[in-house]
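User: Predict the structure for this protein chain, please.
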Amino acid sequence: MRSIDFEVMPSFDGITAEKYLVGEKKFSRRMITRLRQTENGILRNGEKIRTVDVLRAGDILTVNMVDEKYLEENGDLNIPIVYEDDDVVVFNKPFGVPVHPSILHYNDTLGNYFAYLYKELSFRPVNRLDRDTSGLCVAAKNSYAAAQLANGVEKVYFAVVGGDVADEGVIDAPIARESDTIIRRCVSESGQRAVTRYKTLQRKNGVSLVRVTLETGRTHQIRVHFSHIGNALAGDELYGGDCREISRHALHCGEVSFVSPVTKQRVSVTAEIPQDMLALLK
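Assistant: Here is the predicted structure, written as structure tokens:
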């Protein structure tokens, strides 16, 4: 159980617990329902209260959150943790490991390793990476942290792409699902707007190392956009990349930053670019 204390400021004197939690602390209605169903889910100064009860300035409102575990455990994966606090954990996911279980990957995913580490918690990844994308993956340890971090994690990617690209640039091209396929995406006027910004860090051996940030978060956005401009990611067989020197698409989430949900401190985490990508530049 995760317990979080909130001190009620004078500006919230006289409002109900539900209005405070939903309006000020951004709890969802679903989370409020779960708290109602939890023994001692909401306490005021140590005493159980209802969500319709009124708060006064100086009250200490405590929420006690209980999770429901749903994934099979797998402790054999040994995925590095690069940051952790009471509400958030950041993994440095290797390529080849899916984030979520699927029909083909039932118990060999980051979610299964999370279930092994945190036996009483549900797996709530905040940013999702493709199976063959390596790097930083942020997971919330409770529903409150997940809600606070939604759309609040800033990410920086590093990619090795074919050919020479400009020193920096913006790719603004809509992305849609390609007809007759579940996986593949394409640039299409019928798609959703997608914006990718990049800066070239190094050019060598006919490839370029680029630093990438996203203004939007479309499926396969980086891979589709660089293929669209004629510089497909090295190893990206799906979108026309050169696969002779690397066996997976050369994409790595190397930096994440966010505000910790409870402490409100700024957290920045980095993960070095993997050797299989750097070897393409040697």
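The first strand starts at residue 2 and ends at 7.
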